[in-house]
């Protein structure tokens, strides 16, 4: 059973749990989810058919080889101790915060997926509720923007034991590269989003190399963006993904460039210059228009 941890001073929150979740590729299950969620409005038969397919995984993006990691030990072990550091530079963080300022409405309910001790949300923005997820409870407890948090390994179990259509936005910051079952996770994100809700996936060129999946390790900035686009496109119902890029020229030391270790420093993102910023955004069913 999912354990939700409230921050000090907040009362416990027990979200309605979706019991006995089945794989999102099961059409009858999606139909049952739709019928269970329907409360007041009676939709016509054609709308029911359309809704029943929403959230279904249309195809798998990754091969088995593409899902593998160099470090095959459980992720809970790798993240067993807290890392109170930022994994991207100030330029990346500033760009991400500006994107959140643009995309997230005040008063929203937000799920910060694969979070840590910081969420990079605009400091002045007020949201109704922010729920964090991650693998290290100490990091999540330290995050000042989270009202609640829970710990779960999405590579072991992709089911989010949260109510359907319960969040206005879901965030995933510099972590998508570690998902071994991204199709199922994106389908679950679709389920917990409200219609018109945004899923914002951001990343750079930095990573824990041994924990990133093969399809990501072997890629480039362009191919990684396209990979995330495919994650969205493999789930029925997401809008056409929007791509945001900010890739400054790296100021590489010519001597370092010629060094036999230069490729290692570039791989780890240790070259001088700003981190490249990539984000892919899509919405559940439709992109809302705000006045």
Explained architecture:
Residues 151-201 form the Methyltransferase type domain. InterPro entries: Methyltransf_11, SAM-dependent_MTases_sf. This is Methyltransferase type 11 domain-containing protein. GO terms for molecular function: S-adenosylmethionine-dependent methyltransferase activity. By secondary structure, the chain is α/β, with parallel strands linked by helices. It has helices spanning 27-37, 45-53, 75-78, 90-103, 137-142, 182-192, 214-217, 221-233, 254-258, 262-267; strands spanning 5-6, 109-113, 129-134, 148-151, 167-173, 193-203, 242-246, 277-283. Helices cover 29% and strands 16% of the residues. Strands 1-4-3-2-5-6-8-7 form an eight-stranded mixed sheet, sandwiched between helices. The chain starts with a strand and ends in an 8-residue tail after the last strand.
Instruction: Give the number of DSSP strands.
Output: 8
Q: What is the number of helical segments per DSSP (H or I, 4+ residues)?
A: 10
Order of helices and strands: EHHHHEEHEEHEHHEHHE
Question: Taking Cα atoms only, what radius of gyration do you get, to the nearest Å?
Answer: 19 Å
**Largest beta sheet, briefly?**
8 strands, mixed
Helix content: 25-40%
Q: Give the assembly state of these chains.
A: single chain
Roughly how many Å apart are the termini? 41 Å
> What is the residue-averaged pLDDT?
80
Envelope shape? globular
Beta content comes to 15-25%
Low-confidence stretches: 18-50, 251-258, 268-272
Give me the secondary-structure category: alpha/beta
Strand line-up across the major sheet = 1-4-3-2-5-6-8-7
